[in-house]
Amino acid sequence: MSLLSSIHGPADLRRLPANRMPQLAQEIRDFLIEAVSRTGGHLGPNLGVVELTIALHRVFDSPRDRILFDTGHQTYVHKLLTGRQDFSRLRARGGLSGYPSRAESEHDVIENSHASTVLGYADGIAKAHQIQGHGDRHTVAVIGDGALTGGLAWEALNNIAEAADRPLVIVVNDNERSYAKTIGGLANHLATLRTTQGYERFLAWGKEALQRTPVVGQPIFEALHGAKKGFKDSFAPQGMFEDLGLKYVGPIDGHDTAAVESALRKARGFGGPVIVHCLTVKGRGYRPAELDEADRFHAVGAMDPYTCLPISPTGGTSWTSVFGEEMVAVGAQHPDVVAITAAMLQPVGLAPFAKAYPQRIFDVGIAEQHAVASAAGLATAGLHPVVAVYATFLNRAFDQVLMDVALHRLGVTFVLDRAGVTGNDGASHNGMWDMSILQVVPGLRLAAPRDAEQLKAQLREALEVTDAPTVIRFPKGEVAPVRPAVEHLGGVDVLQRTQVPGTKGQDVLLVSVGSMACACLDAAALLTADGLATTVVDPRWVKPVDPALVQLAARHRLVVTVEDNGRIGGVGAAIAQALRDADVDTPLRDLGIPQEFLQHAGRGEIMEEAGLTGTGIAAQTAAFAKHLLPNRGVNEPRAS
Q1: Beta-strand (E) ranges in 167-271?
Q2: Which helix (H) or strand (E) is 494 found in, with range?
Q3: Which of 208, 302, 485, 549 could bond to 493 as cystine, CB 3.0-4.6 Å?
Q4: Does residue 64 carry a catalytic annotation?
Q5: pLDDT tens digits, residue range 613-623?
Q6: Of residues 84, 137, 166, 282, which has the active-site annotation?
Q7: Per DSSP, what are the bridge partners of residue 247?
Q8: How far apart are the first and last CA of the chain?
Q9: What count of other Cβ atoms lies within 10 Å of the Cβ of residue 254?
Q10: Can you tell me the mean pLDDT for 232-254?
């Protein structure tokens, strides 16, 4: 029987002798490599925290002690040690989440998978324990060095340091990487941190002894303190944390379980906020990951663990790669174009631009708010910044989009990757909020390209706008087939007009937003076969609403909007308002993603459940028509 299979919870782990930990760590790495290779998931980060997670659960008593992770993608080892060892459906419907999940275990405290938030949670939990008189409970926050590039983390640190008697242990998992190598002044600082174990004891003794000396004692102590601090900071510049009022332990070899346990026990016994600095290697123990300079196998698809080749290679072109290639072409023609990313150079497709124009790319770390504010500065000075982030992460910088870019009428282009349903990464990563959130921003223009050609064209159109923010958004995965327009009305592309024999006029106007074009065209064929003449249009720029779209709606008997965004406040709602404002009485119904936090599942599964397939769109539209156009006598569309 393996050691790992004998562990059903942290209590079992604590019963094992310390000399068995290296064997357990190796078993965990073997398990992760084999299991994650089958399903895909976050491999490199978890290989790097094996010993660290073992030590955490041997020193602290979860769930009585609260152990929180930032970000949650480094919790696979935590799941294994808390009784969750069936990884056969990791990140798939009915299987384990790729992030902490309170529905799965009482050991999962928070479900965050947006970075830099854990210290805020930890501060609140520690305060609550203090108020409730739970002085024997500890709060432990595990944060990667990449997440410390986020300003939210430093806002929390400022508050954590306020209470010297509040037990809170901050474990900095320093692997010099977020997705790729961590950049910035903080990264440089952490790279040089060292400590002298006797320094605090020496300073405490010196303070007591010298302050007993009349007249000259205090001045001598202050001088020695300053000299010692200066000397120490020359070689061990942890003074940044000490100046905040935080005790510092480290750096510790994060792959030495005994050393990490020892450091954590000291931190646990201190009784106040302590930083434990652990040095780890992302991808540890799996040579292909350790040698991968791009991201150390941060996230992998299903692959052969020996060759590292995909199990099901895709021959399609991704939306991300189309954007990346076009940015390089744009860069050659527009020297004023610069690019900004928030620690995701490779995932958002900007690596080719960085290689071609290294002086015109800025990776600001996991700091989306700063990315947008800095972009505002770049635009103010006469450049045109392109800020490329995942759609879900733009939520974090909404205030800067509104007050720093839009208010100042600045030409900044936002490119939102992974818009709509992303699926397997679960609720926090579905990019289903952007088109609702951004509707309220005055002057902002938002485009949703339907295919690669439109993505290229709309990116270039966005870069011509110098007096307002522009947004281009596209989904995860392979780019959709090119769907040429059969007609242009204003800025609206007509993709198809169908006619029912023996009838005149048009019944249904299907407004297809972005990548929903293929499904809408499939739906139009089904609707036409069942007696509904249907027009399919792509508005291209969905904000503001094109007057030509309002005119088209007036010539149809029913309007149905289809978007891969939450229904509330989205494109459908904006078009409905535009129709009301123009006194157009054509009834409108909107189809989109249910306004709820969706559980992890395949993108196709979620889209089918939401009725956003050709068959689903046709069935719902036919039901609307039957109710709203009773004189048509419409039948339900066929399922195939």
Answers
A1: 168-174, 247-253
A2: strand 492-497
A3: 485
A4: no
A5: 999 999 999 99
A6: 282
A7: 274
A8: 52
A9: 28
A10: 69
Question: pLDDT grade, residue 181 (50/70/90)?
Answer: low
Amino acid type, 630? P
- The whole-angstrom separation of Cα 358 and Cα 352 is 10
Neighbours of 362 (CB within 10 A): 19
pLDDT digits (tens, 9 = 90+) for 548-578: 999 999 999 999 999 999 999 999 999 999 9
Task: Give yes or no for a contact between 560 and 511, defined as CB atoms under 8 angstroms apart.
Answer: yes
Q: What is the mean pLDDT of residues 532-546?
A: 96
Q: How confident is the model at residue 195 (pLDDT cuts 50, 70, 90)?
A: very low
Please say whether the beta carbons of 196 and 232 come within 8 A: yes
Model pLDDT for residues 473-508, shown as the tens digit of each residue: 999 989 989 999 999 999 999 999 988 877 777 899
The label of the residue with tokens 């977020």 reads: 178
Please state, in angstroms and rounded to a whole number, the distance separating the CA atoms of residues 34 and 305: 7
Compare 216 and 379 and report the one with higher pLDDT. 379
Q: Reply yes or no on whether 200 is catalytic.
A: no
String of DSSP letters for 512-569: E-GGGHHHHHHHHHHHHHTT--EEEEE-SEEESPPHHHHHHHHTEEEEEEEEEEESTT
Q: Which of 368, 445, 450, 473 is catalytic?
A: 368
| Closest-CA residue to 93 (of 594, 477, 609, 612) | 609
Residue 170: strand pairing partners = 141, 275
How far apart are alpha carbons 36 and 42 in whole angstroms?
8
Q: In the chain, what are the helix, strand and coil shares in percent, each to the nearest 5?
A: 45, 15, 40
Please tell me the pTM assigned to this model.
0.84
Q: What is the reported pLDDT for 146?
A: 77
- Whether 396 is catalytic is yes
How, if at all, do strands 470-473 and 541-543 pair?
unpaired
Given the residues 396, 450, 483, 543, select the one marked as catalytic: 396
Helix (H) or strand (E) holding 69: strand 66-70
Enumerate the H helices of 555-638 as residue ranges: 571-581, 603-609, 614-628
- Residue 523 structure tokens: 């739906």
- C-beta atoms surrounding 94 within 10 Å: 8
Cα dist from 416 to 98, 107, 373, 566, 594, whole Å: 22, 34, 17, 16, 20
Q: What tokens were used for 98?
A: 């790729």
pLDDT > 90: percent of the chain:
61
